[in-house]
Amino acid sequence: MTVQAETVTGAAERPAPGSPGPARRSLGSRLTERAGGGAVRVFLVLVGLFWLVPTIGLLLSSLRSPRDMAADGWWTVLTKPSQLTFDSYAELLRNGDITGSLVNTVLITVPATVLVVVIGSLAGYAFAWMEFPGRDWWFLAVVGLLVVPVQVALIPIAELFGKVGLFGSVPGVVLFHVGFGLPFAVFLLRNFFAEIPRELLEAARLDGAGELRLFTRVVLPLGGPAIASLGIFQFLWVWNDLLVALIFADSGSQPITVALQTQVRQFGNNIDVLAPGAFISMVIPLAVFFAFQRQFVSGVMAGAVK
Q: CB–CB of 100/170 below 8 Å?
């Protein structure tokens, strides 16, 4: 019986006479399968490490003395670890321009990010689920503001801020970033909030939830990934900005980007301050990104699925 069953099974697996045999896999499919192998992963890791070389070089340069940096390249520290020192960071803490500008950067970036996220969330919910006259036309106006370049508004807004006393101050820089960050925030969050099932909101309304309660208890938790993505984008844009701060901030309100640019212009050989200052300016937004990386990826994937 066993031999007979195997014979029947083998006959069932063989193609019938005259029928085409199993399709041969194409060259592209075989190459795609092999592309997921270990060799490709090693190659991608090497590309990632090569991409990090400037960051690693900046870190090692910030941990060397000016005399060592003038003598040879940063890679020599790999064979001479005795060159590593924190004297440059101590010198940085004694530089009032750099430390003050770092505080100004925080005072500019945090309010500009929080205001854009809060106002953008409220406006996005209103455009998505609230009825008011001219809602679609107002949203089209907001979308139209996305195409307005920052350079076009620099001079008119500088004149306006000069008349109202905001030019050269931290609130002036914050307001500029908020004004140009809101169109993208409203556009992004409105499209994300509009994908929330209507039945879920109607059920909350039947339970007696008002608009504010509905927004805080239902919409915000569901829109967390999109809000986190927006916050990361806004934080990175404001933190790394040079053009707006260079025009609207004075010596008492300049952020770290302007302070480093000033150090390069006035003290070109002041590398013991520039290297650690540039590394701190770079590592803080990297830390923020990696802290919210999971929410950022969730927001991107949710937008892709929808």
A: no
